[in-house]
């Protein structure tokens, strides 16, 4: 039963990290796009 709880929270952590990563890469991407646009 304890192992079930651990794996469940582990999955939730992974999901959270994946969403965080997507946001970070998206923000970085936008930042670079804006800089490229301004440099033209």
UniProtKB/TrEMBL annotation:
GO molecular function: DNA binding; nuclear receptor activity
InterPro entries per record: NHR-like_dom_sf, ROR_rcpt
Superkingdom, taxonomy of origin: Eukaryota
Keyword rRNA processing: no
GO CC annotation terms, alphabetical: nucleus
Keyword Amino-acid biosynthesis carried by entry: no
Record keywords: Receptor, Transcription, Transcription regulation
Protein name (record): RORA
Top-level taxonomy: Eukaryota, Metazoa, Chordata, Craniata, Vertebrata
Gene name, Swiss-Prot/TrEMBL: RORA
């Amino acid at each position: 039963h304890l192992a079930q709880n651990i794996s469940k929270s582990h999955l939730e952590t992974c999901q959270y990290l994946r969403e965080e990563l997507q946001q970070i890469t998206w923000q970085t991407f936008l930042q670079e796009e804006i800089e490229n646009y301004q440099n033209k």
